[in-house]
Design brief:
Helix content: 25-40%
Order of helices and strands: HEEEEHHEHEHEHHEEHEEHE
Number of strands: 12
Number of helices: 9
Oligomer: single chain
Bound molecules: iron/sulfur cluster
């Protein structure tokens, strides 16, 4: 039998969307143990089609196999039914009896967030706004004895928030109507690294202009995936060095100087096997050294090696 610590390491590394409870397979809602959320996180996957306008080299979503389920998008009713069933199991304790999460120590059993993440970019899902409003209402309706309600968290590359109306609606649901946060991806702030890491069809200049708009309207936590690619001496190698870091720091420092409401900056590295061979985790020391360089910023810079 695995020790509790081994189980926790496995849970940290396993962010599978496939979750079963009492023989019932869940399709849109899944629990994970999240390093950055600091405990149990309830994920919502609205992207059964695995749709994304990025193709990040570290993405763990396998887009080579069949879709799950085939081509169908999750109805808001399905998501809400699964959320209710999962919380019923958490409340009754059945969740801990039937899943590997039974080894979690008490301090990690509190639900730390309900995160719109999943197999693609959540803001591209047609049901995103309807489901996020319904989840907000669910959180507001439920009692949370002994605990504050968990925040809703949107984990996004930002591209669905360029238009003013979508930013306003997202702000209302995620920030104004209850506890909530927006975690915004910024992996690169120069054209070469953006093209290499994020492999998006969105032109670099358009992306940066769009993100400027997003941070001008919304308080965000910035999240930056830092990775090395390839082995030293390999002509294809792209290590995360000053050529990546200097433009990133300049961009974020510029936003800070303009008074943008940035809550924190997360520097993290690869925790799970990515789709593309050659992607390598960076040493913790590099992230920590960069965080020290960014210590002048008026918000916390946190590392998750
Ligand atoms: S933005 Fe997220 S879902 Fe899309 S490719 Fe990148 S890591 Fe994968």
């Amino acid at each position: 039998m695995d020790s509790p610590m081994a189980t926790m390491n496995l849970l940290h590394a396993d962010h599978s969307r496939l979750f079963t409870l009492s023989g019932r397979p869940f399709r849109a809602v899944y629990p994970v143990l999240s390093r950055r959320a600091g405990g149990l996180s309830i994920g919502i996957n609205l992207n059964f089609d695995k749709g994304c306008n990025f193709d990040c080299i570290y993405c763990q979503v396998d887009r080579t196999g069949p879709l799950l389920p085939e081509g169908e998008l999750p109805a808001p009713e399905l998501v809400m039914e699964e959320i209710a069933a999962l919380f019923e199991a958490l409340d009754s304790g059945r969740f801990y009896q039937e899943t590997p999460f039974g080894d979690l120590p008490p301090e990690l059993r509190q639900v730390k967030d309900i995160a719109f993440s999943g197999d693609g970019e959540p803001t591209l899902a047609p049901s995103f706004r309807e489901v996020s409003r319904a989840v907000r209402e669910f959180v507001a309706r439920r009692p949370w004895p002994g605990n504050a309600p968990p925040p809703l968290r949107l984990i996004t590359n930002g591209s669905g928030l360029f238009a003013g109306e979508s930013r306003r609606q997202t702000a209302k649901t995620f920030l104004e109507d209850g506890p909530g946060e927006i975690w915004l991806k910024l992996d690169a702030a120069d054209p070469a690294h953006f093209a290499f890491i994020n492999r998006s069809r969105i032109p670099f200049d358009r992306m940066m202009q769009g993100l400027d708009l997003v941070v001008s309207d919304l308080p965000v936590t910035i999240q930056t995936m830092v990775l090395d690619f390839g082995q030293e001496g390999d002509p294809e190698a792209m290590p995360a060095d000053r050529t990546l870091w200097d433009p990133l720091l300049k961009k974020v420092a510029g936003w800070a100087a303009e008074g943008r409401a940035i809550r924190a900056w997360h520097l993290y590295s690869v925790a799970r096997p990515p789709a593309l061979e050659g992607v390598r985790k960076v040493p913790a020391e590099r992230l920590e050294a960069w965080a020290r360089e960014a210590a002048f910023l008026p918000f916390p810079v946190l590392v998750f090696p």
